[in-house]
Amino acid sequence: MASSNSETGFETLVSKSDVELLKRAWRNEKAAPDILQYESALVDRAKEQIELVEETIDDYTENGIDPLVVSLYQMDLDRTQFLLRSYLRVRLLKIEKFMFHSHKSEEAQHRLSDQEKLFAKRCAGDLEKHFKESVLLKLPDNYQSVLKQSLISEDHDMVPQPHLDTFVVCRSNNFVSLNLYEEGESAETVEMERGDLYFIRYKIVKGEIESGKIDLI
Questions:
Q1: Is residue 89 domain-resident?
Q2: What is the pLDDT of residue 172?
Q3: Would you say 214 and 172 are in contact if contact means Cβ atoms under 8 Å apart?
């Protein structure tokens, strides 16, 4: 196979749009205080691309293709693997940090992959077992819950949850008009043009981030 054909093949093997989408998903996940919706289709495509490039590198190496072309594939492979691993690692760190919330909250469960749900369940189960064996079983019955300070508590007040009031830096991808306060507090709004940067409370832009109208940076 000639080098020119190899270079043409390289262009068709790698989806630059998917790499940019993966980079965007990673940045949003890293900057968001809560866990975002798992990008199932994007992750599957990235995995397929990684497998394809790995096979191509092995094939080209065995057939003596120009080492420069092989190095281009390897660079692209390294970049895609880095982004995918970083994206998944950030999500796992959030699950560990908010394991009981991730396991108990129905809304949070909808945002996790099947593997992440299993991970959250195991983390929560192991930590609950450890707490009970080391501390809770030695306390009075009313204080043996890992979710509540006492049995009379109405809410799970011992469960760490994401702070949605956290301020984030974001960029608008489209024109959007946002209410700066929660319903009933104020009618003040802010209008964001495409490309505008804002330092704003996460929960105000949460919906627009999920719809792709705004990105975190």
A1: yes
A2: 95
A3: yes
